[in-house]
Design brief:
Structural class: alpha+beta
Shape: globular
Oligomer: single chain
Order of helices and strands: EHEEHEHEEEEHH
Helix content: 25-40%
Strand content: 15-25%
Number of strands: 8
Number of helices: 5
Radius of gyration: 17 Å
């Protein structure tokens, strides 16, 4: 599967953490994936987002810091656990290609500030194409093959999606065509 530049999805604040996990229809789930370890933020709201992947690479000495800088430079922020769950439910095929982590919510049960929620591909010869939801120890960053962090930003009138045709030419073309048709 070819990676595309950006993905649109929506976080629904009417769902509990457990309902968001269930909506993803994962083939397996780590026992540590529960609301007690990943509590909903106090300012949790329904939000339309655009997400983009940021590759850790394999040669970085501080891969987490480097990928967080890449995310910020591109005008995104690290996805939270609820945003990763919404992404996984909306775009289930993507995680079959590479593991995706949410650096915006840190789980501290085992390693101090060093684990986060992860969507895993988990194919075997007997059962290809399975999807898993787990907790990833990310201190080693990209040492896991093809690890990516999800960066997100809200879609709105002031976002780059509406302001910069150079960054998202295809989406701006579609938005422009839609606006012309609706007039």
């Amino acid at each position: 599967m070819k990676k595309i530049e950006v993905y649109n999805f929506k976080v629904d604040s009417t769902k509990t953490f457990e309902e968001m996990v269930s909506a993803g229809n994962y083939d397996w789930k780590n026992v540590d994936v529960e609301s007690g370890n990943f509590p909903l933020p106090e300012d949790f709201k329904t939000t339309e987002l655009v997400g983009k992947f940021f590759d850790f690479g394999v040669d970085n000495r501080d891969p987490v810091k480097n990928v967080e800088e890449k995310i910020k430079v591109d005008g995104f922020r690290p996805a939270t656990s609820t945003e990763l769950l919404a992404f996984g439910a909306t775009h289930p095929e993507v995680q079959k290609t590479f593991p995706i982590i949410a650096l915006g919510t840190r789980h501290t049960a085992y390693y101090e500030n060093a684990t986060c929620l992860c969507l895993y591909p988990c194919s075997t010869k007997r059962v290809p194409g399975q999807r898993g939801l787990g907790v990833h120890y990310y201190a080693f960053g990209g040492r896991e093959k093809n690890l990516h962090a999800l960066g997100v930003k809200e879609v709105g009138v002031n976002s780059d999606l509406h302001q910069s045709p150079k960054k998202f030419p295809f989406l701006n073309l579609v938005i422009g065509l839609f606006r012309k048709k609706s007039k």
